[in-house]
Amino acid sequence: MKKIFLIFSMLLVLLPAQTIIPTQEIEASGYVYDITVDNNGHLYIGSGKGELQVYDYNAKKFVKRITLPKIKDFMGDEIEPKVFSVDYLNGKYLLLSEGKSGYRELYIHENNSTKKIISVEEKQAIAKAKFVDESHLFMANLGNEVMLYNLETKKERYRFQISQSKFSDFALNISKDTAVIGCESGEISVVDVQKGRVVKILKGQNLDNTYKVAISNGIVTGAGQDRRGSFYQIESGKGDYVEGSFLIYATALSPSGDLGAFAINEENDIAIYNLTTKAQIALLKGQKSTLNTILFLDEKRLFSASSDPKVMLWELEN
Q1: Would the CA dihedral through 143, 215, 36, 295 be positive or negative?
Q2: Residue 223, Cβ neighbours under 10 Å: how many?
Q3: Which of 1, 176, 190, 232 is deepest in the core (most CB within 10 A)?
Q4: 0.70 cut: is pTM over it?
């Protein structure tokens, strides 16, 4: 039986992957820096024009825009701030944006009112922020420090440095109790969000910077500068990788953790792999610029964004 399974797995690897083009191309107001989705048909886009845009992907139209005030650049000219990180939870919208002198500002929009939570005067170099619950944010800065921030007290419950390596990305699992942190060392740190400590280090599959990470159902993926798309089981720590032909800038996991997506080549194509067999089951073609975010909506649909105003929706075939 084991021999039959091995032969079947080899045949799957040899089968040509389906070539898929996007089913929707969404035009944002500016270059897209971050996207997230919910289960109510909404896509949230952080753009280079100082906006969080909400797009209804079923109705195929924008339904809300939150615009931040302009800032002054180093020449004293007014510009729209880049919105680097966005999120949504129970009526609250999160915007992490560019501030002057390279620092960041954080806003919460609720009940049609936008409030600044962290100002540029605090000199924070926050790289990414996401909701844990309505009262707490998990954040990371460029120095590879992570923190749990209380929105009600405006104080950090904890802050600690993952390592001396430069921060790249983090991702939260669906229950928001576990985070995975990618950095320039290639190691991926697994963090207990409530306790504020590293519980496991996943290593050996990426030998250089992991640009992006993803976590779902006990599986973690990493997008590597070494042209490796890594994947690990958190419980066992065991991992493997698939190889790309160019730097892998983005990755994502389906909700089950069975499918992994990686930006696989210089043409910005996205390869979808069955992580059990390492078989490439689909190749998504149509992204025009360097990928920065891939997100699965479910086992068949996913979004991708790159360094241009386009967000793509893809649908995998059966």
Answers
A1: positive
A2: 31
A3: 232
A4: yes
